[in-house]
């Protein structure tokens, strides 16, 4: 699903830039991605040119000073090695997206009770993802729903909330008072309404039914889209792209 965990060779000299389509250079977008890593406490793998590696989290993003900082444990032997190495690269996974960027100007900053590894804000990032597998959480204010008749009870009409969506399928929230649907069943004639500009008809195939952490009033249905036509595919891709951009902007607030 992802590029190999080993950091990819970035923009080798004298050869075509194979990663141009994955490069992010917009400062606002980079700040939003870094802030998402920090807020979610995502694990970041630092790899140095001498082979040293250290797993940490992003502790600070300072766009005014153009600096970032990672948590650091002075007892870990690789921390000093990474700071002193010629080059270092950070790799992290945000949802289903692999983020990679160089970590330059590394220096350890000691506090009274802690230590951080400070570095320069990256001037570019690489964002690897399979577009047909990338999944976004829907925006609740647009009230996204999937409307269909229960596959085993045709007289029962349902409108289930769409939790997230990708080009391959979606997750639906099914309340406990609705008769359960079994994995493998097909839902024909489903109308998916994601927002005022995005609705399409499709067949859903239920692949799994799972409980939701912290949610006792319903379960999550993992569904695959079957037989999407060209117009529905374009409409869905546009929705995913726009939702992704909106969530990045919301992360800046």
Describe the protein.
Helices cover 17% and strands 46% of the residues. It has three helices and 16 strands. It has helices at residues 27-40, 77-84, 230-251; strands at residues 23-24, 43-48, 53-62, 67-72, 88-94, 97-102, 107-110, 115-120, 125-128, 136-137, 145-150, 153-165, 169-175, 186-195, 198-212, 215-226. The longest helix has 22 residues, at 230-251.
What's this entry about, in short?
The chain has 253 residues and is of the alpha+beta class. It has helices at residues 27-40, 77-84, 230-251, and strands at 23-24, 43-48, 53-62, 67-72, 88-94, 97-102, 107-110, 115-120, 125-128, 136-137, 145-150, 153-165, 169-175, 186-195, 198-212, 215-226.
Write the layout of secondary structure elements.
Layout: E1 23-24, H1 27-40, E2 43-48, E3 53-62, E4 67-72, H2 77-84, E5 88-94, E6 97-102, E7 107-110, E8 115-120, E9 125-128, E10 136-137, E11 145-150, E12 153-165, E13 169-175, E14 186-195, E15 198-212, E16 215-226, H3 230-251
List descriptors:
253 residues; single chain; Thrombin, subunit H; alpha+beta; 16 strands; Pnp Oxidase, Chain A; disordered N terminus; 2 domains; nine-stranded antiparallel sheet; six-stranded antiparallel barrel
